[in-house]
Amino acid sequence: MIDIVQELEPLRARVAHWKREGLRVGLVPTMGNLHAGHFSLVEALRARVDRVVASVFVNPTQFGPNEDYARYPRTPEADAAGLEAAGCDLLWMPSVETMYPLGLANAVTVRVPGITEVLDGAHRPGHFDGVATVVSRLFNQVQPDVAAFGRKDYQQLTVIAHLVADLAFPVELLPVAIARAPDGLALSSRNQYLDAAQRAIAPALYRTLQAMGDELRGGGDVDAVEQAAAARLRTAGFDVDYAVVRAPTLATFVPGRDHAGVALVAARLGATRLIDNLEFSLAGVPVQH
Ligand code: PAF
Q1: Residue 30 CB: number of other CB atoms within 10 A?
Q2: Less Cβ crowding at N or C end of the chain, within 10 Å?
Q3: Distance separating alpha carbons of residues 149 and 127, to the nearest angstrom
Q4: Is the pLDDT of residue 286 over 90?
Q5: Does 147 score more than 90 pLDDT?
Q6: What pLDDT, on the 0 to 100 scale, is given for residue 10?
């Protein structure tokens, strides 16, 4: 039976008890409305730790004023049932008051410089400050040995790796492969906002990423590949925020120097913004995780 905990004191007591027994603890941070992608994070962790904690917290500080915080789907009962079936031991479900005890206006904010100002950071100002802040809080609250994050949020993973390295959190990061629908669409809680016509268009994101990888391996010029990708997405019906090729660190991709990289896209269908990425190797060997 999964243990559902909403207050900090019992959370700390449970984790401290496990640690006294010498057990390793893993954390899957989520905003709930869980799908197979989240459960794959739980499963990946189960293979590496003795106890798995998942957090469900819709974090207000990572949503912009015109974003979907209020309508973000909240499905706590289904989340708890799914986590239990996936083998999760404890569900950490703090309130906003527990997460930000001094109030949002007085909250200490963690800001990772540089990397948070490009791509999604440029399109969603303040988003990554909210992510870095809540992930720091979750690490302090749960004190996991390992934390799993999906590779779909590639930039988020890069930001969190920077955070962990610079603040010396004693947490090992476990990046987990993107879970996709059979037609290639990356699983996301936001997919449910798509109507039937938009859902039929959405897999073009992944096809575009695959085409970008093929063109780069065929010797394509980076600018031309990016422009062709944006044009392809617009033709499919997307409003494109970006379609870019980057080095694995998200620095500029330099042909001749970089032999692997990542293609990233962010594009909107109506009010729904989707992101996806594909890590590639120019040697022609698909990147394996
Ligand atoms: O990826 C998410 O679901 C969120 O950004 C995270 C890491 C749980 C922080 O709120």
Answers
A1: 24
A2: N
A3: 17
A4: no
A5: yes
A6: 98
Question: Which parts of the chain are beta strand (E)?
Answer: 3-5, 25-30, 51-56, 90-92, 146-150, 172-176, 239-246, 260-269, 272-281
CA of 56 to the centre of ligand 1 (A): 9
Domains, the chain, in order of start with CATH, read 3-176 (3.40.50.620), 189-279 (3.30.1300.10)
The arithmetic mean of pLDDT across residues 252-264, rounded, is 94
Q: Whose CA is nearest to atom 3 of ligand 1?
A: 30
Is residue 123 part of the annotated active site? The answer reads: no
Instruction: State which amino acid sits at residue 232.
Output: R
288 has pLDDT over 80: no
Residue 233: φ, ψ to 5°: -70, -40
- CA geometry: angle at 125 spanning 68 and 175, to 5°? 80
Indicate if ligand 1 lies below 6 Å from the C-beta of 135: yes
The percentage of residues in the chain with a pLDDT greater than 90, rounded to a whole number, is 96
